[in-house]
Amino acid sequence: MNPPRDGEGDRDAQRRGGGGAPQARRPETYTARKLRRDMSLPEVLLWQRLRGQATGLKFRRQHPIGNYIADFYCSSLKLVVEVDGEGHNRGFAPEHDLRRDRFMEENGYKVLRLAASEILKDADMVAASIGALAASPLHHQPEAGGPPPRAGEEC
Known about the structure:
By secondary structure, the chain is α+β, with helices and mostly antiparallel strands. Helix content is 38%, strand content 16%. The radius of gyration is 21 Å and the shape is globular.
């Protein structure tokens, strides 16, 4: 039998992403994809504003970092933004959040936790405050080997 020609072949396999061998992906990747489809209302509201900001910052949503998945992540700032709903105050969630934050900070990430209720009250204000925090010169760490700070700007 001859191989398929120019676009012929198993259409179902093409819809599934090809007919080749399955790709080896980390479980966090599959979880992140599912979380992107099932975002909460506060996450959706914040995402709509973060992705459209004129600050030039690029955010990713539901981004895997280690064994964790950040709600939003800005790679240029190594900034993780977490949206905390009521569930973060119950059961083992506070301990899990502490472990997660410690892991992120030990690996050079900055973590910003936001209450979902604040986003529901005024998502525009929350997104603007994230942009202002990122643009603040006090937020950026001086580069190693860079020029010394000017007079009056010492850390």
